[in-house]
Amino acid sequence: MNIALIAHDRKKDEMVNFIIAYETVFENHILYATGTTGTRIMDVTKLSIHRFMSGPLGGDQQIGAMVATNEMDLIIFLRDPLMAQPHEPDITALLRLCDVQGIPCATNIATAEILVKALERGDFAWRELVHKYKPGEL
């Protein structure tokens, strides 16, 4: 599965610790991340991560493009709800695309853990059907 990892500045440590805790789950998937988040994770794990640009510089939009073309299966986006973000329209657009495409998106650590536990159990097999068939073929 293709999994995107995004974390606002004050959530990066939380993301890194979360990925360390579930490294054995994530090592079986293709990982993408925005710039600094990806670097921080790769510095402390053995995971290979395709890094996009930093979120404010277009990384959120790059991930959004994958969501729009149904190339992303799961997003963990640890947002900081108490800090205004200069690229808030990009964040809103990404979350809207997840809703439109039916892509699971965790925006806090509790939901991220539920999704990763489901991933670990194999509960996302339905995403394989989405990749296999074109719209209207099911």
From TrEMBL:
<dbReference type="InterPro" id="IPR004363">
    <property type="entry name" value="Methylgl_synth"/>
</dbReference>
<feature type="binding site">
    <location>
        <position position="8"/>
    </location>
    <ligand>
        <name>substrate</name>
    </ligand>
</feature>
<dbReference type="Pfam" id="PF02142">
    <property type="entry name" value="MGS"/>
</dbReference>
<dbReference type="InterPro" id="IPR018148">
    <property type="entry name" value="Methylglyoxal_synth_AS"/>
</dbReference>
<dbReference type="GO" id="GO:0008929">
    <property type="term" value="F:methylglyoxal synthase activity"/>
</dbReference>
<comment type="function">
    <text>Catalyzes the formation of methylglyoxal from dihydroxyacetone phosphate.</text>
</comment>
<feature type="binding site">
    <location>
        <begin position="54"/>
        <end position="55"/>
    </location>
    <ligand>
        <name>substrate</name>
    </ligand>
</feature>
<dbReference type="InterPro" id="IPR011607">
    <property type="entry name" value="MGS-like_dom"/>
</dbReference>
<keyword id="KW-0456">Lyase</keyword>
<feature type="binding site">
    <location>
        <begin position="34"/>
        <end position="37"/>
    </location>
    <ligand>
        <name>substrate</name>
    </ligand>
</feature>
<protein>
    <recommendedName>
        <fullName>Methylglyoxal synthase</fullName>
        <ecNumber>4.2.3.3</ecNumber>
    </recommendedName>
</protein>
<dbReference type="InterPro" id="IPR036914">
    <property type="entry name" value="MGS-like_dom_sf"/>
</dbReference>
<feature type="binding site">
    <location>
        <position position="87"/>
    </location>
    <ligand>
        <name>substrate</name>
    </ligand>
</feature>
<comment type="similarity">
    <text>Belongs to the methylglyoxal synthase family.</text>
</comment>
<feature type="binding site">
    <location>
        <position position="12"/>
    </location>
    <ligand>
        <name>substrate</name>
    </ligand>
</feature>
<feature type="active site" description="Proton donor/acceptor">
    <location>
        <position position="60"/>
    </location>
</feature>
<feature type="domain" description="MGS-like">
    <location>
        <begin position="1"/>
        <end position="138"/>
    </location>
</feature>
